[in-house]
Design brief:
The chain is mainly alpha-helical and 320 residues long. It is 69% helix and 2% strand. It is built from 10 helices and 2 strands. The protein has a two-stranded antiparallel ribbon with strand order 1-2. The longest helix has 33 residues.
Length: 320
């Protein structure tokens, strides 16, 4: 009995060794495979961002909020609802495609924060659209707006400042900090050996301008320049660190890096064109001056594109 038992144990050991060596060889082969550009993932991320995020201001112009019952969501709000659903799903898909294993608890917290941030932004932004109908001007601060000077009691201005804090500060932070964190964690795994040839396909070059333009929109409208620049510097530092180890960014990493670089160039051109605007300077004081596109629209374009709308800045006092 003992020789037979030893024989079975020996054969089982050889089988296990063969299985482990086969698994290790498969992992080595997968590591040496040429990186694949995730075209479906990046197209989905860019298209949904342009339609559901960047497209909302366009829908507001084509289908204004006052075309719908003001106590119910309008067309732009339904796009925002869809964006709140699709963005976490695409981020989860991005995590699944990551070449490296990412910390799951941190990623789950990021997805939860994105859902909460986009939901806060949806509510606050919907109320802001109703305020625009009665003369609110986005290029002015809350207390400088003419309609706020007519509010009685005046202590209600604090409530509106709280609303815009939820919209422009808390909501944006809870949405965009996890978003850029997930992008950075994904980028941290997008490296391959220096010996491998890394060349972006034509589809990636075609997708690069709209992707960079969307990041430009996140920076300017979302006021996330500091978050963006820290993420970009962290990505650049990681590239330098990996080069010392003989690693370079693979196709998806190059696409992210080039998108961020082009977005930074677009932001620089945007700021340069509006550098001497005194009104926008008052709205965005301090060292970081990145005007919001909607503020530029209400300041310079709204009176030209919609002259038929009456000026409601001196309407009857708002009482609550």
């Amino acid at each position: 009995m003992q020789p037979s038992v030893r024989k079975r144990q020996s054969s089982a050991l050889h089988a296990a060794t063969f299985t482990l060596s086969g698994a290790g060889s498969r992992e080595m082969d997968s590591a040496l495979l040429k990186p694949r550009f995730h075209l479906d993932l990046w197209i989905g991320f860019t298209v949904q961002s342009w339609i559901l995020d960047v497209g909302r201001p366009v829908v507001m112009l084509v289908l204004p909020a006052d075309w719908f019952p003001l106590n119910r969501p309008g067309a732009a709000e339904y796009l925002h609802l869809a964006y709140n659903i699709t963005t976490p799903l695409i981020l989860l898909k991005l995590i699944e495609r990551s070449p490296r294993t990412l910390p799951r608890p941190a990623l789950h917290l990021c997805i939860i924060a994105v859902v909460m941030g986009t939901s806060i932004h949806l509510v606050a932004d919907s109320i802001t659209q109703r305020l625009l109908l009665i003369g609110y001007q986005l290029h002015l601060s809350v207390r400088e707006n003419p309609i706020m000077k007519n509010i009685t009691p005046s202590s209600l201005i604090d409530s509106f400042e709280l609303l815009f804090y939820y919209d422009e500060s808390l909501g944006h932070s809870m949405c965009y900090i996890p978003l850029f964190l997930v992008l950075f964690l994904f980028f941290s795994g997008c490296f391959t050996h220096r010996k491998q040839e890394v060349k972006m396909p034509l589809a990636a070059w075609i997708l690069l301008p709209p992707s960079a333009a969307h990041y430009w929109y996140l920076i300017t409208e979302g006021q996330t320049f500091i978050l963006f620049i820290f993420t970009f510097f962290a990505m650049t530092a990681m590239v330098m660190h990996q080069r010392r180890r003989g690693m370079i960014p693979e196709i998806n990493g190059l696409f992210l890096l080039y998108s961020f670089s082009l977005a930074l160039l677009l932001v620089a051109l945007w700021v340069a064109c509006l550098w001497d605007d005194a009104v926008l300077r008052r709205k965005h004081p301090g060292l970081i001056y990145v005007p919001q596109p909607r503020a530029v629209y209400t300041l310079h374009l709204r009176q030209h594109t919609s002259p038929q709308q009456p000026d409601r800045s001196h309407a009857a006092p708002i009482q609550m």
